[in-house]
Specification:
The protein is α/β, with parallel strands linked by helices. It contains six helices and five strands. The chain has two domains: about 35 residues; about 140 residues, no CATH class. The termini are far apart.
Length: about 200
């Protein structure tokens, strides 16, 4: 009887040691991570070498400058997510810049990251830049993002679209607050018209 009890214990401990989560296919792991905050999804990279880059393929990103000690860390994190070799879609992007960096240093990164997201079937964009409103200019590609469903812009600058035809066929919700745009520009009116049509 004692031997049989020991073998049962050994069998159950082997089952406990088996890592069933790591056996899941990558798409299922990424789908699961998409329900976590970006911070939580990134922290799963410590679980195993297989999980190290899984967060890079999650289609949601919440990036706030307050979570980083310096500009280099902030840019490195953002660049790794928006790396051109990533082919996945970005469904939801939330960017918040709260003034712990110099204005000129951040502006170009913000514009290029949003531009990269609009080319990856972006559906929901929320940008808030209270300290960087003059230099945080939205890229022209925002005016032609055919997959965009929700647009929330707060304290950013809009470019004059010039000859670019504003087409946002899927846009359902738009929140615009404290925007800056060049004098005599048509950017705001075209955004509103494209949303209403």
């Amino acid at each position: 009887m004692a031997c049989r009890g020991k073998s049962k214990q050994a069998g159950s401990s082997q089952r406990l040691k088996k890592d069933r989560i790591s056996e899941l296919p990558d798409p299922l792991i990424r789908h699961t991570l998409s329900h976590l905050s970006t911070k939580e999804a990134v922290s799963t990279s410590l679980l195993s070498t297989r999980w190290r880059t899984q967060w890079l393929w999650v289609p949601n990103l919440e990036l706030s400058s307050t979570n980083f000690q310096d500009l280099d860390a902030f840019v490195k994190f953002g660049e790794s997510f928006f790396d051109s070799s990533r082919l996945s879609c970005i469904h939801k992007l939330k960017l918040a810049l709260d003034g712990n960096f110099k204005e000129d240093d951040v502006a170009s990164y913000l514009t290029s990251w949003i531009d990269a997201a609009t080319k990856r079937k972006l559906q929901h964009l929320h940008v808030h830049c209270p300290e960087f409103h003059y230099s945080s200019t939205m890229p022209l590609s925002l005016y032609t993002c055919e997959t965009l469903v929700t647009l929330k812009l707060s304290e950013v600058s809009l470019q004059d679209p010039g000859s670019v035809s504003v087409t946002l066929p899927c846009l359902k919700t738009m929140h615009l607050k404290n925007l800056w745009y060049p004098v005599e520009t048509r950017s705001l009116s075209l955004l509103v018209l494209s949303w209403k049509s």
